[in-house]
Ricin B lectin domain-containing protein
Amino acid sequence: MFPSNTYFYIKSSLGENVVDVYNGETKKYNDNENQLWRYEDGHLINKKSDLVVDVRGGDTKSDTPLIQYNRKMTMASNQRWGYRDGFIHLLSDPRLVLDIKGGKNKKGTKLILYQRKDDENENQKWIVEPFGEPFQAAQVEGPYGNNPYGTTPQPPPPSSVDNPYGTNPYGTQSDSNNPYGTNPYGTTPDSNNPYGSNPYGTTPQSGLAGYGAPDPSPYGAPIPYEQAAEVHRQVYNEPTERKAHLSHQLIAGAAAYEAVKAYGRHQEGKGEEFNHSFIKKSVAAIAAAQIVKFAEEHDWSSKDKEEATRQAEAAANHYSQREFGSN
């Protein structure tokens, strides 16, 4: 597990290099904040930028670049991480881990999401080193108090910068023992490389790094109905330890699927026809109640409960239209 209420370095098991945010215009001197991280509710947050580690484009598949991005309030499975046995993995899929591309222990090498390897995996192993004194965790409260059904506001858009959508502004390494170096990245020009003079895909010095292309529809459609059916079996039939890695988005989809099926069983059991004017409201209410139950069982924060409730209600509307043909 990651340490709580403290900043830390994420050091490669290959040597002294650490995960770093590449910023072409800022030389570190006595500033190591680009290299320091804290862990909150599954997110790895950079001290300097206050942005989180994000799988670019929301595409959680092997060999996908990592970037920094604003912390999302919903659909955040590509931003939530766990740490176990030296691997930093997606909570939604522990088989996908933080990986040094090409296995190189060289400053400036970019990081990617990659399939976990059973052997020769030193480029996927990390050592977390706490830094400084512990701090008091901020109290997280939802904007709607004790109302678990309140809608969570959208986060602000990324800050305006010269080049906010660089191809791979996040995921470089630097030497934690040399924070005063004037050029801690040491990249070498390569005319045959698709990134031109910067072979590791980091943002050029013309703009502030640390931003990536926005994920498509971060507040869009819920998980597909078929996927919800599969996750439902995990959430409702497997022991707690087997489903601890599931994201709130997946649990919300499972809750919505359960709500659709529960409503159908109830109406059929009573021999009543389906009243299409009430289906969506009824199914959404059942889904929200399921989320409240999960939140109590797993001690979710009020913020997490609100986000999951919103996701479950949206999924319930989507699935009920498919299942019952309601409008």
